Amino acid sequence: MFFIVPLVVIFFVLSVRIIQQYETGVIFQLGKYSRTLQPGLNFIIPLIEYSRVIDMRISTNDIPKQQVITKDNVPVSINGVVYYKVVDAQTAVIKVQSYMYAVSQYAQAALRDVVGGMTLDDLLAERQKIGDEIEVIIQKAAASWGLEVTAIKIQDVDMPEELKKMMSRQASAEREKRATITKAEGDKLAAFNLAEAAHTMSQSPGAMQLRTLQTIDGLGPTASNTVVLAVPVDVMELVRGITTQITEKKKE
User: Fold this and answer.
1) In DSSP terms, which residues pair with 60 in a beta bridge?
2) Distance, CA of 70 to CA of 120 (rounded, Å)
3) If you write DSSP's letter for every residue of 32-57 in order, what string do you get?
4) Which of 86, 92, 131 lies closest to 110 in space, CA to CA?
5) Cα 58 to Cα 22: distance, rounded to the nearest angstrom
6) CB–CB of 42/25 below 8 Å?
7) So what CATH class is 59-164?
8) CA–CA distances in Å: residue 18 to residues 11, 21, 35, 195
9) What residues form DSSP beta bridges with 25?
10) How far apart are CA 152 and CA 77, in angstroms?
């Protein structure tokens, strides 16, 4: 009698399985799939049934840095991360030995295939597109393993130092080119505006004199400023004629 109570307690303890809300339990009876345990308190038959608890939350796996040759023969090192979750615990346990390792290896192979078919410029500019293409490739296999791939993110893209220097020089030359074009367009616009202003002044006799007075006024009262006024030739001739007439009248 004294031996029966401890045995019952041990049997009860061994038969209890508490499954968390984010987990699912897969039960094998004598090596054969029996049923799936839902979150909460569950019981199994000790020694006859074996449980495998699977985390159903989103998991992450690093894609180790891969040495890849791009379509235009540029060697790059690239790594990333894959986000996935188990949607069918029974299939994930039965169909693949280690679904985490399988996803990691498949992601590495897909990464090399996708990047190998792209040029370096596309690789640097289309990271999101690369992740989407890898996700589509992995999802086809992951679905048969009871998994769902939610996202693929590309993290780092490393290139040879010499290539980095060449790209830096190219970017600098491109910025200088844009600056030169912008300056040329500004000079062209300024010349056009000056031509318009000159045309307007030529149509108004007093415009030049008004502009001259504005310029003198803008110099300010500083004593160190020296102002040189260029008097038009016709004005000088008019003054010379008046002076000649006055001189002749005095002689008479």
Assistant:
1) 83
2) 6
3) EEEEEEPSEEEE--TTTEEEEEEE-S
4) 131
5) 10
6) yes
7) alpha beta
8) 15, 10, 15, 88
9) 37, 53
10) 17
Q: Higher confidence at residue 202 or residue 134?
A: 134
| Sequence ranges of the domains in the chain | 4-55, 59-164
Place of tokens 């202003």: 197
The position carrying tokens 């894959």 is 82
- Look-up of token digits 């009262």: 221
| Closest to 111 measured CA to CA, from 157, 160, 146 | 157
pLDDT digits (tens, 9 = 90+) for 7-27: 777 877 888 888 899 899 999
Rounded distance between C-alpha atoms, residue 248 and residue 72, angstroms: 93
- The 10s digit of each residue's pLDDT in 22-55 is 899 999 988 888 888 888 888 888 888 888 899 9
Phi, psi at residue 175, to the nearest 5°?
-65, -40
Amino acid at 66: Q
Q: Look at the chain and count its residues.
A: 252
80 vs 70: CA distance, rounded Å? 17
Q: Check if the beta carbon of residue 86 is closer than 8 Å to that of residue 146.
A: yes
Integer Cα distance of 192 and 107 in angstroms = 60
pTM of the full structure? 0.61
